[in-house]
Amino acid sequence: MRARFLLGIPEPSWLWQPHPGLQDVALFPSRTRLSRRKTTFPKALHDFAIDSGGFTELKKFGGWRISPQEYADEIRRYRDELGPERMLWAAPQDNMCEPWVIYGKNQHLDPRHENYFHGTRELRGLGPDDPEQDLDTAVRIHVELTVENFLEFTRIAPDLNIIPVIQGWLLPHYFYCKKLYEDAGIDLMSYPVVGLGSVCRREDTQEIAEIVDALSATGLRLHGFGVKTEGLGLYGDQLVSADSQAWSYGYRKRNIKLSQCTHPAKNCSYCLEGALDWYRRIKDTPPDWRQMTFDMTPAA
């Protein structure tokens, strides 16, 4: 099996842009970006799935600022206006389990800084004077909240194709999450895709590979959120789909502007041509996925 690759995009207008390079490309906008548009969306010309933007929510604010009902109303609007026939699925309001998300990091920085993390004490029910929880306890709370949120969507929004997400940090956490779904009567095997959370910003790709291997062995059809190209080389054949917007980060960090681009920006971090150049490299790679792992050199 070779994972279907969804192209993470910073600009929702790409959804309805009639660009020849976007033919047969599935796009992955964030709900955070979509929510900025107050006028009616044009009909999408390309298939898409919707990322929750949950990492940003927890990173900046330590929890979700909107209720499940408000979230469902937003997703329904995007589906109906962009076109139900184009929307593949949407992620739920899951809760990431990376230790730096849970405990916070660089809290002396401006919350807008990319290295700032708020921490989730309030989300986990802790007051200002309560002692901090150990990582296992904190992760399990995030996992339980993730499952509770999905169950709420099955109650209030059964018409929306919101997928379950398996969250965790260590392998036992992911299986704990899987069991919670099963105990609640959710047949994960019946879903065409189940999201795999808290993997995109890990440094240990081999550790993720072991988690993917164990979960896919149970028959789950997994979507990898923000999977690195190195990770695709290790376990891409065990995923149904994966997404990434690493192209934008790479162009920005390395200040790369493709020779064929005429836009005024200094690099291609928001550039459709740059995104498609990177996407084609992913698609045209041999089956082992090993290409340009951190090489953003423009293609010849």
Automatic annotation (TrEMBL):
UniProt superkingdom: Bacteria
Domain DeoxyPurine in DNA protein A: 1-102, 140-291
UniProt name for this protein: DeoxyPurine in DNA protein A domain-containing protein
Originating organism: Streptomyces hygroscopicus
Taxonomy of the source species: Bacteria, Bacillati, Actinomycetota, Actinomycetes, Kitasatosporales
